[in-house]
Amino acid sequence: MHRIHLSHLPTPLFHHPALDALVGTEVWIKLDDSNAGAASGNKIRKLEFLLAEAQIQEATHVITCGGEQSNHARATALAAARLGLRSVLLLRTRDPQKPPALSGNLLLERMAGARLRYITPEQYNDRDALMQEEKEKLRVEGKRAYVIPEGGSNGLGALGWVEAMREVRGQLNLGLGAGPKPFDAVVHACGSGGTAAGCVLGATAFDVAEKVIAMAVCDSVEYFRAVIGSIIVQAKALQSTLNRQSVLEIFDTWKGPAYAVADSDQLQFIADVARCSGVVLDPVYSGKALYGLKMLQPKPRRVLFLHTGGLPGLLAQAADFSSILG
Ligand SMILES: *Cc1c(COP(=O)(O)O)cnc(C)c1O
After folding, report:
1. Does the chain have fewer CB atoms within 10 Å around its N or its C terminus?
2. Any atom of ligand 1 within 6 Å of the Cβ of 283
3. Residues 17 and 136 in one domain
4. Ligand 1 and 153: CB distance under 6 A
């Protein structure tokens, strides 16, 4: 499968005793929050495969979608700019007549030259059809667009996370994760399912862990079981050697009050993690996921936690932290 290199690899495996104490188990953090400059986060690994296909198809534009502060849309816009592709982003917002302020991910997208189209939550339900419409409009203008689904989560994108598990195995063999022994579980935030699908296939293929724990930040356990299952089927069709799967556990218990809204315990936890370890999680994804691991009983004893990024979104939510930080 074709892949273009957009990230600094391997990303470190980070361990800190104060973090173990705070979470209540041994935690190794894969720092994918700093793998590609401003484009950093878990989406860049998917984009290495997706944008390779866009290039093969000689695309001039990429079209994708996401929430108002979508990390995926930002990573796509920046990676596309790097490759000389234009990007069109369909972003969900409450009232498209009143576009949100230019902060966090939105600022970076505009700097990358992306065209932003705001759509309502109702329209967002038809996002795939709307992206096809945009593609058709560009085709009429003589342009060729490549459409990337929400979160870059399809079989091809998931291969990025299969390869991430190969990378972790290499690090364990070098003694960078305290030794070659596999972890008891891979734990991460789940928002569109592609990371989970890749890890479920890769963690067992490369003897990283026999269990993946996906902490949902939206929707439900049933929803993600179906979505992740279908991405796994697609990925296996692309790479027939992926014939085993680790156990997948999904929790929606710690998704907080709403998508992109964290409760005060979660915000406090994110601040505590930063103070004791210097690691900055985000309030939409990784903060809720590690908070979930802290709350989970019983816990796996030795965990690989994926820091999937999200810093621009945190900076756009500064006001939410003021009550925590005083
Ligand atoms: C998108 C995202 C996730 C979720 O990954 P999926 O593959 O979409 O499930 C987790 N963390 C951050 C910071 C993200 O941007």
Report:
1. C
2. no
3. no
4. yes
Residue 309 CA: nearest ligand 1 atom is 13
> Same domain, yes or no, for 164 and 267?
yes
Residue holding tokens 């979660």? 266
Mean pLDDT confidence for 246-264: 98
Mean pLDDT of the chain: 98
pLDDT (0 to 100) of residue 217: 98
How many domains are there within the chain? Answer: 2
Q: Is the CB of 70 under 6 A from ligand 1?
A: no
Residue 234 lies in domain: 13-41+153-325
Residue 23 sits in the same domain as residue 58: no
Does the pLDDT of residue 326 top 90, yes or no?
no
Query: Separation of 213 CA from ligand 1 center, angstroms?
Result: 14
In a domain, 255, yes or no: yes
For helices 264-277 and 286-295, angle between their N-to-C axes, nearest 10 degrees? 90
- The DSSP code sequence of 44-101 is HHHHHHHHHHHHHTT-SEEEEEEETT-HHHHHHHHHHHHHT-EEEEEEE-S-TTSPPP
Band (178; pLDDT cuts 50, 70, 90) = confident
Same structural domain, 298 and 288: yes
Distance of CA 63 to the CA centre of its chain: 18
* Ligand 1 in reach of 189 Cβ (< 6 A): yes
Cα(196) to centroid of ligand 1, in Å? 9
CB half-sphere exposure, 321, CA atoms < 13 A: 20
Closest atom, ligand 1, to C-alpha of 286: 11
- Catalytic positions are 70
Find out whether the beta carbon of 25 lies less than 6 Å from any atom of ligand 1.
no
**Is 145 a member of any domain?**
yes
Q: Which amino acid is at 42?
A: N
**Cβ(91)–Cβ(120) below 8 Å:** no
